Amino acid sequence: MSSKSSPPAKAAARAAKAAEVRAAQQQAEKRRRMLMIGGVAALFVLIVGGAVLVTILNQEDVEAPAAGQSEFGVTIGDADAPHEVVIYEDFVCPFCGELEKQTREELAELAADGKVFVDYRPFDLLSSAVGDYPIRAANAFAVVLDASGPEVAKEFHDLLYENQPSESGPYLSDDELVDLAVEAGAEEAEVRDGIEDLAQEDWVTGATAAAEDANVGGTPTVLIDGEQVTDYRSVDDLADKILEAVR
Question: How confident is the model over 19-77, as pLDDT tens digits?
Fold first, then answer.
């Protein structure tokens, strides 16, 4: 009996190989698109590591609602403060995490002093590149916001960044998200089911659509007094521009 493959078998093998190549090409194109909007870890690592890069993550002018005028976020400070800051962010974005480290405490102090009104707007930018963690984290934030109010949600927001996983994982489990929510001040019984069942996934979808409608194409996207910040070269530079503008 001949050991050679039959023509149908060879055709099937060629088809399978072609499908494999197409899948690889599609994945490569997805990565290329994410690189273009600043969504791949390597780009963020270069920026966070201090490399000097001109970082303009949005090619179109961002036209976002003023601080406090979006249903997708949490605010700190007085709405009548002389300055406002809006920050669009993704909970797995390391650039966002570094910006948080450099601005959170001082922005909180300035907000408490009545100098700035800050609106943090999480959404899902990176799930197509890293998996479902951005959706699960933003869902958990929305669950806590709905169940426990803005103060606890802001504390949970901060804890998500303090415990931010690497963009390559491993990511926080649902149990770990629940634990952080409880640490922030939420009642476990009020948030566990919503976190585990993605009860606020529609909120995440709405937040993401709102960001897209505002022409937000990268994270973090920051607006100060309604004007998008684009002329920065590093996380340090962006943090300095934010704080200098609102002191």
Answer: 555 555 454 444 444 444 444 333 444 434 433 333 344 446 999 999 999 999 999 99
Pairing of strands 74-76, 221-224: unpaired
Residue-wise DSSP of the chain: ---SPPHHHHHHHHHHHHHHHHHHHHHHHHHHHHHHTT-SHHHHHHHHTT--------SS----PPTT--SSSEEES-TTSSEEEEEEE-TT-HHHHHHHHHHHHHHHHHHHTTSEEEEEEE--SSHHHH-SHHHHHHHHHHHHHHHH-HHHHHHHHHHHHHTPPPTTSPPPPHHHHHHHHHHHT--HHHHHHHHHTTTTHHHHHHHHHHHHHTT--SSSEEEETTEE----SSHHHHHHHHHHHH-
Question: What is the model's pTM?
Answer: 0.79
| Neighbour tally for 7: CB within 10 Å | 8
Give me the CATH topology for the region 41-246.
Glutaredoxin (3.40.30)
Q: Give the C-alpha separation, 240 to 34, whole Å.
A: 26
Dihedral sign (CA 28, 30, 31, 33): positive
The domain limits of the chain are 41-246
For residue range 140-152, what is the model confidence (pLDDT) as tens digits?
999 999 999 999 9
Would you call 164 exposed, middle or buried from its count of C-beta atoms within 10 A (0-12, 13-18, 19+)? buried
**Residue 204: what residue type?**
V
Picking from 155, 162, 129, 147, the residue whose alpha carbon sits closest to that of residue 203 is 147
Q: Which residue has the tokens 């109010």?
A: 149
Widest pairwise Cα distance in the chain: 88
